[in-house]
Specification:
Shape: globular
Structural class: alpha+beta
Helix content: 10-25%
Number of helices: 6
Radius of gyration: 15 Å
Amino acid sequence: MSTLTLAALLLATAADPKTVGYAALFPTLGAMYQTTIHNPEIGKGEKPEAYKQMATFEWTGGRAERLNVTFARDPGFKEEFSAAALKKTGAKEVDVGKKKGYLMAMPADKGKESPGPRLVVVLSADKVVIIDQYGFGADLEKLAASIDLEKAEKALDAPPK
């Protein structure tokens, strides 16, 4: 059994069933990161079209670094994360496996910590993986490449549990 599989099983059994969702899809960053899997956000209705789940990874080794990894589906992404819209923002196109990713600066949150870079990996017209970095140290492209993007795209066919 791989370390990733073992970690996912341990995490899944320890977590509240309402928060597990896409837990096995999130990357494993190692012992120096404290991981928090947040409750999923699911749109209204019997068959919601918009939903997402985020995990936060905080470095515990002395430097200020936090990463948020979000798996999301929303019909609005067709416009928001289209290649044309992202290029207008000055995003740099990068290859992440067989998918296109876009590196950009995150919008500043008033009164909150300074945002770092953001990587949006477009899985399909309405499905994305978003990695936001606060602080320093992570290689977002390498982190995104460690995620099984095919499994993430398939998982996003349905809302998180």
